[in-house]
Amino acid sequence: MSIPQQSLFASDPGTARRRAAEARFRAYGLGAVLVGVAALLLLLSSVLSSGLGAFWQTRIHIPVTLAGAALDPLGGRDPAAMRKVTTIAYGKVIEAALRDAIAQAGIELPLTDAEIAAMLSKEAPAQLRNKVLADPALVDGTIEVSLLANGRIDGYLKGRVTMDSAQLDRNVTPQQLLLADRMLARGMLSRDLNPGFLTAPDASDLRPEAAGLGVAILGSAYMMLIVLGLALPIGVASSIYLEEFAPRNRWTDLIEVNIANLAAVPSIVFGVLGLAIFINFAGLPQSAPIVGGLVLTLMTLPTIIIATRAALKSVPPSIRDAALGVGASRMQAVFHHVLPLAAPGILTGAIIGLAQALGETAPLLLIGMVAFVREFPAAPPEGFFDPAPALPAQIYNWTQRADPAFVERAWGAIIVLLGFLLVMNAAAILLRRRFERRW
Amino acid sequence: MSPFWLVTAVLALAGAAYALGRARVLSAAAGDHRALHSLPAHYGWAAVQMTLAPALLLYLLLLLAGQAGPVAAAAALALALGALIWALRRNTPDFRARNAVERGMMAVLILASTIAIATTAGIVLSMLFETRHFFTLYDWREFFFSAIWAPQFQGRSQLGILPLLWGTLYISLIALGFAVPVGLFAAIYMSEYAGRRMRALVKPALEILAGIPTIVYGLFALITVGPLLRDWLAQPLGLGSSASSVMTAGLVMGIMLIPFVSSLSDDIISQVPQSLRDGAFALGATRSETIRQVILPAALPGIVGAVLLAASRAIGETMIVVLGAGAAARLSLNPFEAMTTITVKIVSQLTGDNDFAAPETLVAFALGLTLFVITLGLNIAALAIVRRYREQYE
């Protein structure tokens, strides 16, 4: 074997190759990390860029004269009698007011009456009707109102609808867009914050501009109440038994394996279970938060049990021994000493489980939570049995609609959903930071 | 009387039971705690348990038997009252109230821990029952071995699982092909190379990916990734013109699985004992040589377990494929064509109006059972591998 005649400072070809391999390997690793981070950034930026628009809405501001002859033919200002006047009458009043306002502003464009009327949302007459029914004294006066503009006009202001696309669109004409430009210049049209997105109920296919998340948020809140009320006590009780009292035998082994496997069962299977047992067998109503809550409870239980057992395990045995030493029973040692010390860990696990349940969609599709519901559910406990969509199911519902305005709504709803998840996870992290003890 | 008010009434009785039970035993002992076997509160709780448990149990049984009328409520209330009186008479200073209370609590704990078993039994039984019903209406050989999926409303549907199984496996394969290298390399980099500050930034960022609901990934696939792949890859290459495709769903699912693979691999790599690393370094190996030739072989079983767990997630994933993969059942190799999966078809057969006598609806239960069996098998295998691997170094 010949000894290589080389300096100790310059590297030989073998070392250079190994160094290159080292650098390559390291670059692969860094590349993988960057791919992951880039995917996250792309996802978040596409959520924000497409969804923020849903929080603003285009409105038309015009004075409306509420002629008593049309809106209160009996003249008694009796709300019960005025309820008989349908939105059609209100629609005529608004259309006339809009034509007058446009003429008064000196805008002259070759538009038909129908085209002018279509500037407004189909929801606008109902808006005005609710306002008048709430305050009958308004009749026979002139009031300034802000009415929802049509979804296409809203899309034009948000850049979704253009002159080119309007040429091909049956629902909007380029002339209407020109009119929108003029009205915008005169302050009759503006884009404002849209609180209705968070409070209003869903709306039909033809009026995306009126659709909101109110009922869905309430439905999700009801489901979370049920999940919290059932999954937390049951999960904590079963963890205490398994961790503190259970003898090691076949039965408890079976339970342990079961819990580990349940945690990995696909969520859609829980939906099938809910449909077969809660709806078909037990006869609970479809689309009701109670069924969704029960299904999500079964899904969340393993998460809470695993977190609770970890929290109980981290309490040192010396605490138990000390309690038993001064004469506590085993039950007292657990409930008076171990459980309070494990509480922060248990709560953290519960919040994370709840956050998972809040974002879960697939099982809800099977138990009818995608139904179109406009009525707010009653207060609990009766409200648990009223139909209500859930937040993620509402998002899915909106992606299935034809009008592209609903896609913006769906992204906006995702921002709301992610906002809730962010708050919940932040609470879990704070809780852990503040109360976690290390022995 | 509605169930809500009955429960309220029984709870009110239980509240009275606590006060009365405690007061009665104290007066029997003339206010001297030392004469009692247990703490005064235990006597109260013993009375509460006696009042609540039998009455609510009876009411629940009557409800399940379909007897929710006023008779059931009256019977439950009467039982609660009777049990209350009996429990009060039982409360003498010699009565071992603490033992009674703790026996009751133990029963509750055991009951709660059997709910996990009951859930699994519920899943298996409900699906087995409906699947058997399905196979009386439809030949099982046709279901498992036919390559045509064509449900029809008028009947005479062809319901072969093979195209769905193929779509599921193809999408999962693409997802794993993306997530496993990226996740594994990210885990290696984070545990072996990255500095403390980088780890503190990147680790939570990747974990955010794990916390995002799948409906968000679904919409991301449908609106962002699908058209992007179609316009920049599929159409220029002449491979297809559909935005929803196997590739779209697979890639987005891969993104979802990155944190899953990386955090599991991270755990496993950090479990490899430091002495193995030190030994390799002492022999002059570079970092990458140590990783490739020492750490990865030692961690391999654990990593295989992690990949199997990720595979079971991919196969059971629903929202991404519902929104991103399409609904056409076909057997094809082209990744830019729309295909469909088992989960998509469970959703489409079970949403809307269901007729539980038609094979077109019942097939969803057979699909669900198949899915359950596949994922359960993968999970059991993965958990067994991971557990054996853990024992190796403990």
Automatic annotation (TrEMBL), chain A:
<dbReference type="InterPro" id="IPR024573">
    <property type="entry name" value="DUF3333"/>
</dbReference>
<keyword id="KW-0812">Transmembrane</keyword>
<keyword id="KW-1133">Transmembrane helix</keyword>
<dbReference type="GO" id="GO:0005886">
    <property type="term" value="C:plasma membrane"/>
</dbReference>
<dbReference type="GO" id="GO:0035435">
    <property type="term" value="P:phosphate ion transmembrane transport"/>
</dbReference>
<protein>
    <recommendedName>
        <fullName>Phosphate transport system permease protein PstA</fullName>
    </recommendedName>
</protein>
<feature type="transmembrane region" description="Helical">
    <location>
        <begin position="262"/>
        <end position="284"/>
    </location>
</feature>
<dbReference type="Pfam" id="PF00528">
    <property type="entry name" value="BPD_transp_1"/>
</dbReference>
<dbReference type="InterPro" id="IPR035906">
    <property type="entry name" value="MetI-like_sf"/>
</dbReference>
<feature type="transmembrane region" description="Helical">
    <location>
        <begin position="27"/>
        <end position="56"/>
    </location>
</feature>
<comment type="similarity">
    <text>Belongs to the binding-protein-dependent transport system permease family. CysTW subfamily.</text>
</comment>
<feature type="domain" description="ABC transmembrane type-1">
    <location>
        <begin position="217"/>
        <end position="432"/>
    </location>
</feature>
<feature type="transmembrane region" description="Helical">
    <location>
        <begin position="290"/>
        <end position="312"/>
    </location>
</feature>
<dbReference type="GO" id="GO:0005315">
    <property type="term" value="F:phosphate transmembrane transporter activity"/>
</dbReference>
<feature type="transmembrane region" description="Helical">
    <location>
        <begin position="333"/>
        <end position="355"/>
    </location>
</feature>
<keyword id="KW-0472">Membrane</keyword>
<feature type="transmembrane region" description="Helical">
    <location>
        <begin position="221"/>
        <end position="242"/>
    </location>
</feature>
<keyword id="KW-1003">Cell membrane</keyword>
<feature type="transmembrane region" description="Helical">
    <location>
        <begin position="410"/>
        <end position="431"/>
    </location>
</feature>
<keyword id="KW-0813">Transport</keyword>
<dbReference type="InterPro" id="IPR005672">
    <property type="entry name" value="Phosphate_PstA"/>
</dbReference>
<dbReference type="InterPro" id="IPR000515">
    <property type="entry name" value="MetI-like"/>
</dbReference>
From TrEMBL, chain B:
<dbReference type="GO" id="GO:0006817">
    <property type="term" value="P:phosphate ion transport"/>
</dbReference>
<dbReference type="InterPro" id="IPR022182">
    <property type="entry name" value="PstC_N"/>
</dbReference>
<keyword id="KW-0812">Transmembrane</keyword>
<feature type="transmembrane region" description="Helical">
    <location>
        <begin position="108"/>
        <end position="128"/>
    </location>
</feature>
<keyword id="KW-1133">Transmembrane helix</keyword>
<keyword id="KW-0592">Phosphate transport</keyword>
<dbReference type="GO" id="GO:0005315">
    <property type="term" value="F:phosphate transmembrane transporter activity"/>
</dbReference>
<feature type="transmembrane region" description="Helical">
    <location>
        <begin position="43"/>
        <end position="64"/>
    </location>
</feature>
<feature type="transmembrane region" description="Helical">
    <location>
        <begin position="241"/>
        <end position="261"/>
    </location>
</feature>
<feature type="transmembrane region" description="Helical">
    <location>
        <begin position="71"/>
        <end position="88"/>
    </location>
</feature>
<keyword id="KW-0813">Transport</keyword>
<keyword id="KW-0997">Cell inner membrane</keyword>
<dbReference type="InterPro" id="IPR035906">
    <property type="entry name" value="MetI-like_sf"/>
</dbReference>
<feature type="transmembrane region" description="Helical">
    <location>
        <begin position="164"/>
        <end position="188"/>
    </location>
</feature>
<keyword id="KW-1003">Cell membrane</keyword>
<keyword id="KW-0472">Membrane</keyword>
<dbReference type="GO" id="GO:0005886">
    <property type="term" value="C:plasma membrane"/>
</dbReference>
<feature type="transmembrane region" description="Helical">
    <location>
        <begin position="362"/>
        <end position="386"/>
    </location>
</feature>
<feature type="transmembrane region" description="Helical">
    <location>
        <begin position="294"/>
        <end position="315"/>
    </location>
</feature>
<comment type="similarity">
    <text>Belongs to the binding-protein-dependent transport system permease family. CysTW subfamily.</text>
</comment>
<comment type="function">
    <text>Part of the binding-protein-dependent transport system for phosphate; probably responsible for the translocation of the substrate across the membrane.</text>
</comment>
<dbReference type="Pfam" id="PF12501">
    <property type="entry name" value="DUF3708"/>
</dbReference>
